[in-house]
Amino acid sequence: QLQLVESGGGLVQPGGSLRLSCAASGRSLSYYTIGWFRQAPGKEREGISSISKSGASTNYLDSVKGRFTISRDNAKNTVYLQMNILKPEDTAIYYCAAHTNFGHTFSPAMYGSWGQGTQVTVSS
């Protein structure tokens, strides 16, 4: 069974950067399309980025395009989310999730495996 663990969250000033990691165990991550989601207090969980099984294709929410970069290292069974030019509105709990289908989707219901989340706080 696939297990996912996020790390790399923390407190950062506006304009700063963080790199989140999503480490998998139990199965090879190469079988899965991976998505990053976030959920701010009082808001619904939203998909912000996804990456195909090979890493050849990526997708981003408009509000993070040009600031966030998703990548993966299947040999290390890890997916990353590099977040630059962070804004206070990026404050949320960030989750990685996996699904075995092909194609990009930001629908949480399509993802069968989830990590526990990591807190990102952008504040001065």
Question: Would you give an account of this structure?
Answer:
This protein is mostly beta strands and 124 residues long. Helix content is 0%, strand content 48%. The chain has no helices and 11 strands. Strands 2, 4, 5, 6, 9, 10 and 11 form a 7-stranded mixed sheet that branches. The model has no long low-confidence stretch (mean pLDDT 96).
Shape: globular
Helix/strand class: mainly beta
How many distinct beta strands? 11
Main beta sheet strand tally, sense and closure: 7 strands, mixed
Question: Helical proportion?
Answer: under 10%
Q: What is Rg?
A: 13 Å
The percentage of residues in β strands lies in over 45%
- Give the distance, in angstroms, between the N- and C-terminal Cα atoms: 40 Å
The DSSP helix count reads 0
| Mean pLDDT, all residues | 96
Low-confidence stretches: none
Order of helices and strands: EEEEEEEEEEE
